[in-house]
Amino acid sequence: MTTHPTGPAASATSIDIHAHCVPTGLVETLLAEGGRYGIEIRDEDSRRTAIVAGRVRTGPLREDLSDLAVRLATMDAAGMDVQVLSSWIDLTAYALPAAEGARYARMFNEALVATAAQAPGRFETLCTVPLQDPVAAAVELRHGVSSLGMVGVEIATRVDGRELDDPNLEPFWFAAEELRCVVLVHPYDSLAGRGVSRYFLGNLVGNPAESTIAAAHLIFGGVLERHPDLRVCLVHGGGFAPYQLGRWDHAFGRNARGAAAQLTRAPSEWLSHLYYDTVLHSSHALRFLIDTVGADRVVLGSDHPFEMGDGDPLATLRRVPGLTPPEVSQISAGNLQRLFSDVRR
Q1: Is the pLDDT of residue 191 over 50?
Q2: N or C: which end of the chain has fewer CB within 10 A?
Q3: Would you list the DSSP string of 131-144?
Q4: C-alpha distances out from residue 319 to 160, 292, 315, Å
Q5: Domains of the chain: which residue ranges?
Q6: In sequence order, what are the residues at sequence separation of 6 or more whose Cβ sits closer than 8 angstroms to the Cβ of residue 103?
Q7: Rounded distance, CA 211 to CA 46, Å?
């Protein structure tokens, strides 16, 4: 079934896959009914944070995550037609008990769609799902795509300590494959337990490392072999994975300590099956990524509104050495238009 031919992205010439949002009214809802959702909003030292399930604290709830006017002005300044809105990853709330997690995800997704509707033609949306309960996550994903018109889902690189090849996650992967929707994988709690608090290393090194580990579990754990129609996109250019594909293939070829146990194809083939955003901050690194996986597997990203984001992803793309106009068009919008048009509702 053709699914999304008339959405905002259909006629766009630039689409940003990686843009975080706290929906309009979400914080106010949690302030009024936090107990119902298992999330408490606190004001401490002039900073507002959320406490999830009484044990997981988010970072500061920044105003620019919710400010629609600032978001639109930033998009216009960068020549960005459409943003694909997804949750700030701190608010995926996998620590919640299953029932509260499902209730929270439903409220969040309805609020995100309502937020996008305030600026018709400028936004697509990715839902959040209670992945701590994979069956409920599959239900919410189907609701988000089929009932709310969302184009996919954002998930974290780990699910409250579980890796993405955990067998219990199969119901979610089945649903995502069946819907042929985008699954955006984003780092969370990067390199927890390691000494990365200094020099911003939790972000600079930790985030790419988390994406690399997640990609490795998806590949070596056989998730992509079992679900070859998944449309998985890794942020930050896939972390370190594209640079290490030779090492991964070497281990596969020798079945080093079981590296090939769940694979029939080389890891490099599966790396070329994934999608990657452009948030690399280097035209030469982006050139390497495109050469490695193909221009048909790379999509624009900004990581709005964070300081490690790319404020002008179109300019970054146009600086890539040797990139042809058709490739620029493909990466800036064409690849995502193809994916969104293929979502099954």
Answers
A1: yes
A2: N
A3: TTSHHHHHHHHHII
A4: 39, 18, 6
A5: 8-24+64-341
A6: 36, 37
A7: 32
Query: Rounded to two decimals, what is the model's pTM?
Result: 0.96
Q: How many CA atoms lie within 13 A of 202 on its CB side?
A: 10
8 Å CB contact between 187 and 236: yes
Which residues contact residue 114 at a Cβ distance below 8 angstroms, ignoring those fewer than 6 apart? 23, 24, 25
Q: Encode pLDDT of 134-168 as tens digits.
A: 999 999 999 999 999 999 999 999 999 899 999 99
Residue 120, Cβ density class (10 Å: 0-12 exposed, 13-18 middle, ≥19 buried): exposed
Q: Contact, 269 vs 248, CB < 8 A?
A: no
Does the domain spanning 8-24+64-341 belong to CATH 3.50.50.60? no
- CA distance linking residue 144 with residue 307, whole number of Å: 29
How much is the average pLDDT of 178-206? Answer: 92
